[in-house]
Design brief:
Helix content: 40-55%
Strand order of the largest sheet: 2-1-3-4-5
Largest sheet: 5 strands, parallel
Shape: elongated
Distance between the termini: 36 Å
Number of helices: 8
Structural class: alpha/beta
């Protein structure tokens, strides 16, 4: 497995390089944000360990650039800052995990193994379908750049459709994931809310697949 470590503290970088190499990883190390971003663009990594506080551009900017470029390698953020806002920002930008310094190397390894099991499937921070964009962190939906006002349940329904774009989603699946298992599946609530969504985002965006459910192309 190939790992990129972006860490500007020489001692920490050395510890990570040595420890990961001993565990069988092929390790590239970068000491600043610009170089780390270049490594991530030019090479294919199975996992990235990224410090937040870096010279030049910080880890958040590196992460944002990685994801904007369509690189979905799992990213573990490292930082000495324990503010909740920092953790929230990193995760919302597309990080897969977050560790505070100091940390136990054994735990870092365990977290990297967990990320490697998860793989590098696409996990965009902002969901897109044509000119429709949904930002789960900001709880905003925009259509052709214009803000669309949705209720909490309409937002949840649209997010579910967008995360499964191109797939047929059954009424039962929608009830279980957008409402709950105890909800009356014979209710017409799904049809009602799909109608609300169509009225706000356009009637042609959500297709009815007869006998199967709905699909957002």
């Amino acid at each position: 497995m190939r790992v990129l470590v972006v860490e500007d503290e020489p001692e920490m970088a050395s510890i990570l390089r040595r420890g990961l190499t001993e565990e069988g990883f092929a390790v590239d190390v970068s000491a600043d944000g610009e170089e780390g971003a270049w490594y991530a663009r030019e090479n294919s990594y199975d996992v990235i360990v990224l410090d937040v506080l870096l010279p030049g551009i910080d880890g958040f900017a590196v992460l944002e650039g990685i994801r904007a470029a369509g690189n979905w390698a799992p990213v573990l953020l490292l930082t000495a800052r324990d503010a909740v806002e920092d953790r929230v920002r990193g995760l919302d930008l597309g990080a897969d995990d977050y560790m505070l310094k100091p940390f136990a190397f054994a735990e870092l390894l365990a977290r990297l193994r967990a990320l490697l099991r998860r793989g590098a499937g696409e996990r965009p921070a902002v969901l897109s379908a044509g000119d429709l964009q949904l930002d789960p962190a900001c709880h905003e939906v925009r259509m052709d750049g214009r803000l669309v006002g949705l209720t909490a349940k309409e937002f949840a329904l649209l997010e579910y459709f967008m995360r499964r774009a191109g797939r047929v989603v059954s009424k039962t699946e929608l009830v279980e994931h957008v409402w709950d298992f105890a909800f009356d599946r014979d209710s017409n609530v799904v049809e009602v809310y799909v109608g609300y969504l169509r009225a706000k985002i356009g009637h042609g965006r959500i297709e009815t697949v007869r006998g199967a459910g709905y699909r957002l192309p």
